[in-house]
Design goal:
The protein has one domain (about 5-10, about 20-215). It is built from ten helices and three strands, in the order ααααααααβαββα. The chain has helices at about 5-15, 25-45, 50-65, 75-110, 115-125, 130-165, 170-180, 180-210, 230-235, 270-280, and strands spanning about 215-220, 240, 265. The protein has a three-stranded antiparallel beta sheet. α2 (about 25-45) packs antiparallel against α4 (about 75-110), α4 (about 75-110) crosses α8 and α5 (about 115-125) crosses α10. Bound molecules: zinc ion. Zinc ion binds near residues 260 and 262.
């Protein structure tokens, strides 16, 4: 299975983002999340106790005369500690994006059916706990993915180094090459922030539309020549589909890929459900 890093970097190679498509509010969340992630990545790279860790690990393996053992818990314990900051950053921003997606959808329906601002406030407050619980699940998965990738990569450098009888210094240099890349760090932070805010907004919009009985949806592309020809273009050409059905790409809703700029439009709102949820007679 591909890690989140691999998926994001692959997407970055093939897709270009268009900032203008996302709302100003979403842009603010993305840029604040980028800063938070960058801080986490910088902290991870700067405080990586590479030399000490390698010395300990190297001696341990030499003592055991065993070169191919599971990666040391010294490192995994350390990464677990660092991940607290990451969890906080992700939770804060993904929850904001979820509220934004829910709010945006409800505001659209309020405008469409002329329900007024009191109804809008009630609807915005009706975001179910289950949707927020999904945020926690998502964050846990992301943290696992990010930490696993780092651990696996550094673990490979160490085990290959031991096999090739490299010195501790040489292994440390290889790890530095892997971690000490500012551009990669920044790019990662940007890609994750954009993809995750996109995902959270879209997920909340989908749940919001279902909550008021919408039964159909339409995949809406930006319509320029950067739209993915494999995933998004054919989805957009499909026309309306039932809300619980997948589009031809297998996606139930946007994003079709990490940097997807498409949106989903929802139809067939049950006006009785909408009015009941909005507290309007
Ligand atoms: Zn798309």
């Amino acid at each position: 299975m591909k890690t989140i890093w691999t998926r994001l970097l692959e997407a970055a190679a093939g897709q270009i983002t268009d900032a203008s498509v996302l709302s100003d509010e979403a842009q603010k969340i993305i840029s604040s999340m980028e800063k938070g992630l960058k801080k986490w990545l910088d902290k991870l790279m700067e405080s990586f106790p590479m030399a000490q860790f390698l010395q300990v690990y190297y001696r341990k393996l030499r003592a055991q005369e065993q070169l191919d053992v599971e990666f040391s818990t010294v490192f995994t314990d350390w990464v677990d500690g660092e991940n607290e900051l990451l969890t906080t950053v992700l939770n804060e921003h993904i929850e904001k994006a979820t509220r934004l997606g829910w709010k945006g959808t409800m505001q659209e329906f309020v405008d469409q059916f002329g329900l007024g601002q009191d109804a809008a406030s009630t609807l915005v407050g009706a975001l179910p706990d289950s949707v927020l619980a999904d945020v926690e699940v998502r964050v846990a998965t992301l943290v696992d993915d990010l930490a696993d990738t780092t651990i696996t990569k550094i673990g490979n450098i160490v085990s290959n180094g031991l096999e090739a009888r490299l010195s501790v210094d040489e292994m440390a240099r290889q790890i530095l090459d892997f971690t000490d890349d500012d551009q990669l760090t920044l790019e990662r932070a940007q890609l994750i922030a954009r993809a995750e805010v996109n995902e959270a907004v879209s997920r909340a919009a989908f749940e919001g539309a279902k909550a008021v009985g919408a039964d159909e949806k339409d995949w809406n592309t930006v319509g320029d020549d950067r739209v993915s020809e494999i995933i998004c273009l054919p989805n957009g050409e499909q026309g309306r589909v039932k809300i619980d059905r997948a589009f031809q790409s297998g996606h139930t809703r946007t994003p079709g890929h990490p940097l997807c700029r498409c949106t989903v439009l929802y139809f067939g709102v049950d006006i009785k459900k909408l009015r009941a949820l909005a507290g309007v007679a």
